[in-house]
Specification:
Length: 147
């Protein structure tokens, strides 16, 4: 369950008209913070980001389904549906919840380190290509001037 402050920050971003990915960034940021403070770990920076995005979808952020395997798309659709429904299931079974927590607690805390996140960002940017990076930089410069 995301913290109240994170949901408030995401709602503030939505009011400002920020993109869905910016709103979801608040949840990813919270996840990194949890890993760094030792609440749990993650196998990789990608897993930590995926957990944050899942929380964002469940909190009602309108993110698109990811590209990739059908299982990943199906999980994203489940999360989106859970975020849209007004009635929420009370909770996951205690056994399952403890199993997930236990598994994450055994994972490394290094996946949220500055170095690991830097490597992930560079790899992700390189995969997008030169034109996409250039367009992102132009858009950032444009929005910074507006603010």
């Amino acid at each position: 369950m995301p913290e109240r402050e994170t949901i408030e920050r995401a709602k503030e971003d939505a009011r400002k008209g920020e993109s869905a990915s910016t709103q979801a960034g608040e949840f990813v940021r919270e996840e990194m913070h949890h890993i760094r403070e030792g609440k749990h770990g993650a196998r990789s920076p990608q897993q930590a980001i995926a957990i944050g995005l899942s929380k964002a979808r469940r909190a009602g952020v309108k993110l698109k389904s990811p590209k990739g395997p059908a299982s990943r798309r199906k999980k994203a659709q489940q999360d989106t549906k859970a975020g849209q429904s007004s009635h929420r299931k009370t909770s996951t079974s205690k056994t399952r919840s403890q199993a997930v927590s236990g598994a994450l607690k055994r994972e490394s805390r290094k996946s949220a380190s500055h170095g690991a996140l830097s490597r992930q960002a560079k790899r992700s940017a390189a995969a997008r290509g030169k034109q996409a990076r250039s367009a992102a930089a132009r858009k950032a410069a444009h929005t910074i001037k507006a603010a």
